[in-house]
Design brief:
Helix content is 36%, strand content 24%. It is of the alpha/beta class. Strand 12, helix 8 and strand 13 form a beta-alpha-beta unit. The structure holds NADP nicotinamide-adenine-dinucleotide phosphate (NAP). The site of NADP nicotinamide-adenine-dinucleotide phosphate (NAP) has 27 residues, from helix 7 and helix 8.
Length: 518
């Protein structure tokens, strides 16, 4: 039986899109995990803007209404900073072990609510249910990791240049952190920022994406239950049209000492520019344009498998998704033929159908972009091996589904080679030499992830070192792990999330010198 049921209701009384005539009940064990209010200073509250605006949250598989949340503005953004600033001195001065205990309790609650949170993610974001639950555990892994790292944030005693002095360096939290996250991983993106911030002793104001605010609010509810003191974490939801109003307040406020952003490169550049006036610390996890290279000495079956994992998770809406696939001439046809069989067999459908492997794209804009990329490629000579079109489902004509697609004869002048398609499309380009393909792989302003398959040890080291990116998958398609540093180079941003490096971005180093000892 489908895990959710839908009930027809009247259209919402507010002036929202006219097609929103259904509301959806999620059968959660904890119905109270669906929250509609902002979380500020430990209180769940409506927007403080005079007209208390709301925005709808919808299911991308059928555009049905899930609920409404606050469409916040500048007043809410400021209230969140006030709360975070008030909570900062107490939170930072708590022993690391005490902060760690709260964070680890939060992890336990996330894990024990993985089914509910997984349903919520799948419903508001569209990914298949198994992926929704998988994302919950992935998010929790960062919370657990940074709960542990909180107690290992050591300082240093520096060899003294004079016997009457001692030199030391310690780590301190930077202060209030503004966290801004995208819709594609509604739990993981926000958890892997909030957890290190809390572990470091920072307090947080966070704005989840317009399309997926509910998971962030549910996580905040569990953080509250874990014992996080009021004001340490504050969540403000807002629509795309008001996002800049909220974030501009945080950019201008000199009490906000850090911006941690995951999203597109243009917005990241804007944040970097605007935060300069108060010289905030800033971490940017931005867009990618990942190459995936298959050399003729690769295990072809493993390469096909790796590409399926790397490309089709989350319907291709992942920053580290291979966006350009290069296959050496000798193995090109075998690879394409095996890949096409696997891709054509993918089941496209809503998360509530438990065998779905590719859900709807997040919204109409997303599917229009994918269609534009495919049409551009075909107009410039690409061949469609499988897929290549929208999928219209009778029960949900508004839904944004796109068929899993393989294109061949892709060339560098195609839009899909230059921009992230962010959908289930694999453009394949044939190549002859290692030097040629490394040049093409690096011929992009982006540098997040890259993948290659080869069984030649010398080539593996050569190519790994030559690729201009922050993350390299060698004979492997699944790269992310809480213990690994995640982040890019070039216009894919700076800063690292996860790993032993992940706390650094939320801390500064204080050096102190004690004299008069001789
Ligand atoms: P986006 O448009 O940049 O949005 C990301 C966040 O920024 C959202 O919360 C968005 O709010 C907010 N935002 C948008 N315009 C803003 C503005 N003018 N001022 C302040 N905030 C603003 O990116 P997206 O389309 O949601 O996400 C997809 C992108 O994220 C892709 O490029 C993907 O590669 C990248 N990404 C990178 C990583 C990584 O780790 N490197 C991970 C995941 C995704 P609204 O939702 O209200 O617009």
């Amino acid at each position: 039986m489908a895990p959710w049921h839908c009930e027809l209701t009247r259209a919402h009384p507010f002036d929202f899109n006219s097609f929103m005539t259904k509301t959806v009940s999620l059968h959660l064990k904890r119905a109270d995990l669906i929250v509609s209010h902002n979380f500020i200073a430990g209180n769940w509250q409506a927007s403080l803007e005079p007209d208390q605006p709301l925005m709808p949250v919808t299911d991308p598989s059928d555009a049905s209404l899930i609920t409404h949340v606050a469409d916040s503005g500048a007043v809410d953004a400021l209230a969140a900073v006030d709360a975070a600033q008030s909570a900062f001195s107490d939170w930072k001065s708590r022993p690391a072990k005490e902060r760690a205990t709260v964070i680890k309790r939060w992890n336990d609650l996330i894990v024990s609510h993985k089914e509910d949170l997984g349903k919520l993610i799948s419903r508001e974001q569209g990914k298949p249910l198994a992926e929704g639950e998988g994302e919950v555990l992935y998010a929790a892994s960062y919370v657990e990791w940074f709960g542990e790292q909180a107690t290992r944030s050591n300082g240093e005693i520096i060899p003294t240049p004079a016997n009457n002095k001692r030199l030391m360096a310690i780590r301190e939290p930077v202060g209030v952190v503004a966290v801004i996250t995208p819709w594609n991983f509604p739990a993981a993106m926000i958890a892997r920022k909030i957890a290190p911030a809390l572990a470091a002793g920072c307090t947080v104001v966070a704005k989840p994406a317009e399309d997926t605010p509910l998971t962030a609010l549910a996580l905040a509810k569990l953080a509250q239950e874990a014992g996080l003191p009021p004001g340490v974490l504050n969540i403000v939801t807002t629509s795309r049209t008001r996002a800049a109003q909220v974030v501009d307040v945080w950019l201008a406020d000199d009490r906000v000492r850090k911006i941690s952003f995951t999203g597109s490169t243009p917005v990241g550049k804007h944040l970097a520019k605007e935060s300069a006036s108060t010289l905030k610390k800033i971490s940017l996890e931005l867009g990618g344009n990942a190459p995936f290279i298959v050399f003729e000495d690769a295990d072809i079956d493993a390469a096909v498998e790796g590409l399926m994992v790397a490309k089709f998770r989350n319907g291709g809406q992942t920053c580290v998704c291979p966006n350009r696939v290069y296959v050496q001439t000798l193995v090109h046809d075998e690879f394409v033929q095996k890949l096409a069989v696997r891709v054509a067999a993918l089941k496209v459908g809503p998360a509530r159908e438990l065998d779905s492997q590719i859900g709807p794209m997040i919204n109409a804009r997303a599917v229009e972009k994918i269609e534009r990329h495919v049409q551009d490629a075909v107009a410039k000579g690409a061949k469609v091996v499988t897929g290549g079109h929208r999928i219209q489902r009778a029960e949900s004509p508004q839904a944004a589904y796109f068929s899993p697609t393989v294109l061949t004869e892709a060339t560098p002048d195609m839009v899909c080679a230059c921009e992230e398609t962010f959908g289930p499309v694999v453009p394949v380009t044939r190549f002859d030499t290692e030097a040629e393909v490394v040049g093409q792989a690096n011929d992009t302003p982006f540098g997040l992830a890259a993948y290659f398959y080869s069984q030649n040890p010398a080539r593996i080291w050569r190519v790994m070192e030559a690729l201009e990116c922050g993350i390299v998958g060698i004979n492997e398609g699944a790269l992310a792990a809480e213990a690994a540093p995640f982040g890019g180079v070039k216009e894919s941003g700076y800063g690292r999330e996860g790993s032993v490096y992940g706390l650094d971005d939320y801390q500064h180093i204080k050096y102190f010198c004690q004299g008069g000892l001789g």
